Amino acid sequence: MLEYPQIDPIAVALGPLKVHWYGLMYVVGFVGAWWLGRRRAARVGLTADDIGDLLFYGALGVVLGGRLGYVLFYGFERLASDPLWIFQVWDGGMSFHGGLLGVLIAAALFARKHRLAFFQLTDFIAPLVPIGLGAGRIGNFINAELPGRVSDVPWAMVFPGGTQPRHPSSLYEFALEGVVLFTVLWLVSHQPRRRGMISGLFLLLYALFRFGVEFVRQPDPQLGFIAFGWLTMGQLLTVPMALAGIALMLWSRRQPVDGAATPQPA
């Protein structure tokens, strides 16, 4: 059994001003996506300055979609009894699936503004997303959020407030949704491929990774298992993602090939 590292969730405290590690992880995700996006902007006919505009659209999609998705998917009963709770972002969480829908809407608006094909843009965005996903999972771990199920594996940890060793499921998600997903999409994006294939691959791989990790992640306490005694809300929401990913990859076989341009200096 490993000892859980006692990390103060507050990274910096200056009087009443407190900067939390979780918030900094969002900054890491956005800055990383901005930096890599600027280097690759020419691939889709954008300028480096356009990437700042894209990041603004994406940030709105992540925050608004993520919060709305959380209250609808994981806290609808509380929302029904207290509608103002949706604005209490400090009391509750963010949903990846809601954030994804928000980003897709933002991408559609941005693509229309800049006269880009929608899947041409999402193929460009997909390799940038795992940076934020991985950083967010590190933030979850620092906050002792998303503890795994009780386990006796050698790397299990006793999380704050608990007495039994558990899987560090947020670190599993960091490795899969962050490191592995980024590596695969980054390598594929440097090869000629058909439009929509990277977007489909992102959906499929994330769905598979998330579905698998949910078997060792503690289900949300307000929901528990929602079917068959083992299916969680996280797993249920990944099913349409996987199907959409497969369909998109099949559809992409009839689309034009997008070449891999040489990255441009920032």
TrEMBL record:
<feature type="transmembrane region" description="Helical">
    <location>
        <begin position="196"/>
        <end position="213"/>
    </location>
</feature>
<keyword id="KW-0472">Membrane</keyword>
<keyword id="KW-0808">Transferase</keyword>
<keyword id="KW-1133">Transmembrane helix</keyword>
<feature type="transmembrane region" description="Helical">
    <location>
        <begin position="96"/>
        <end position="112"/>
    </location>
</feature>
<feature type="transmembrane region" description="Helical">
    <location>
        <begin position="124"/>
        <end position="142"/>
    </location>
</feature>
<comment type="function">
    <text>Catalyzes the transfer of the diacylglyceryl group from phosphatidylglycerol to the sulfhydryl group of the N-terminal cysteine of a prolipoprotein, the first step in the formation of mature lipoproteins.</text>
</comment>
<protein>
    <recommendedName>
        <fullName>Phosphatidylglycerol--prolipoprotein diacylglyceryl transferase</fullName>
        <ecNumber>2.5.1.145</ecNumber>
    </recommendedName>
</protein>
<feature type="transmembrane region" description="Helical">
    <location>
        <begin position="171"/>
        <end position="189"/>
    </location>
</feature>
<feature type="transmembrane region" description="Helical">
    <location>
        <begin position="20"/>
        <end position="36"/>
    </location>
</feature>
<dbReference type="Pfam" id="PF01790">
    <property type="entry name" value="LGT"/>
</dbReference>
<comment type="similarity">
    <text>Belongs to the Lgt family.</text>
</comment>
<keyword id="KW-0328">Glycosyltransferase</keyword>
<keyword id="KW-1003">Cell membrane</keyword>
<feature type="transmembrane region" description="Helical">
    <location>
        <begin position="225"/>
        <end position="251"/>
    </location>
</feature>
<dbReference type="InterPro" id="IPR001640">
    <property type="entry name" value="Lgt"/>
</dbReference>
<feature type="binding site">
    <location>
        <position position="137"/>
    </location>
    <ligand>
        <name>a 1,2-diacyl-sn-glycero-3-phospho-(1'-sn-glycerol)</name>
    </ligand>
</feature>
<dbReference type="GO" id="GO:0016757">
    <property type="term" value="F:glycosyltransferase activity"/>
</dbReference>
<comment type="pathway">
    <text>Protein modification; lipoprotein biosynthesis (diacylglyceryl transfer).</text>
</comment>
<keyword id="KW-0812">Transmembrane</keyword>
<feature type="transmembrane region" description="Helical">
    <location>
        <begin position="56"/>
        <end position="76"/>
    </location>
</feature>
